[in-house]
Specification:
Blueprint: E1 4-9, E2 12-19, E3 24-27, E4 33-34, E5 37-38, E6 44-48, E7 57-66, E8 78-82, E9 96-97, E10 108-113, E11 131-138, H1 140-146, E12 156-160, E13 174-179, E14 183-192, E15 206-210, H2 215-221
Parallel strand pairs: 9-14
Antiparallel strand pairs: 1-2, 1-6, 2-3, 3-8, 4-5, 6-7, 7-8, 10-11, 10-13, 11-12, 12-15, 13-14, 14-15
Length: about 230
């Protein structure tokens, strides 16, 4: 997953993100907004080009732009602008973004991140190496039922699988679909897990901001050339 980014805040790992152009990184809004305040771009950095989040190339940012209507779980996306153009290589490249409005229910997808890998609530240490897990997209109606809410809006998609899933530290990471043998297209941005059931539970699929819903926001704030599918 050469588009994966380990996002740091004041040198502490906080979230996963994805490279979407030579100047732009996509992540979740709650990764850059703390207690209602957008944090300074100078406080963030990213590590790219290595599955080990401690030993890749460090990049800095000059701008942090959460969605203007970001509110907790709603509109949970943000674009960060790299201070210098990101150099592409075998281990570093952008992911294309999905523009499809098609129903993705039951489609196989993959989530990648450096989130906690145990359900033990006392464990707060994230792994050094990038993890990934294969999931399936849930119908929003089923997701709403499992979350005991009236409706899950179209701007959100849910995905899960038995005994695998997301946890703290995976936020902001890409949810991707396979395109060809070695290519992927990003369909979601990791947003939340079910706090009742906890991490990686069959009955608690994770929630993702649906990328196609936020294309206009992303394109209007991206400084580089973004690939759309």
């Amino acid at each position: 997953f050469p588009f994966s980014v380990a996002l740091y805040y004041r040198d502490r790992y906080v979230c996963t993100a994805s490279i979407i152009s030579e100047r732009d990184v996509l992540t979740a809004g709650h990764c850059v907004v703390f207690n209602g305040i957008v944090q300074n771009p100078e406080d963030f950095s990213g590590v790219i080009g290595n599955v080990n989040k401690e030993s890749g190339t460090r990049i800095k940012f000059t701008n942090v732009t959460p969605h203007p209507q970001y509110d907790n779980l709603m509109n949970d996306v943000a674009v960060l602008t790299a201070a210098e153009p990101i150099r592409y290589s075998d281990g570093v490249r952008a992911v294309c973004l999905s523009t499809t409005k098609k129903n993705l229910c039951l489609k196989p997808v993959t989530s990648a991140g450096w989130g906690i890998t145990t359900r033990d609530t006392d464990v707060t240490v994230t792994p050094d190496n990038l993890q990934y897990t294969n999931l399936r997209v849930y119908p929003n109606k089923k997701c709403a039922k499992l979350y005991n809410t009236r409706k899950v809006p179209d701007s959100i998609m849910c995905a899960g699988a038995l005994n695998t899933g997301l946890c703290s530290g995976d936020s902001g990471g890409p949810l991707v679909m396979k395109k060809g043998r070695n290519d992927y297209v990003q369909v979601g941005v990791a947003s939340f897990v079910n706090q009742i059931f906890g991490c990686a539970r069959l009955l608690g699929p994770a929630g993702f901001s649906r990328v196609s819903h936020y294309i206009d926001f992303i394109m209007s704030n991206a400084k580089g050339k973004v690939c759309l599918e």
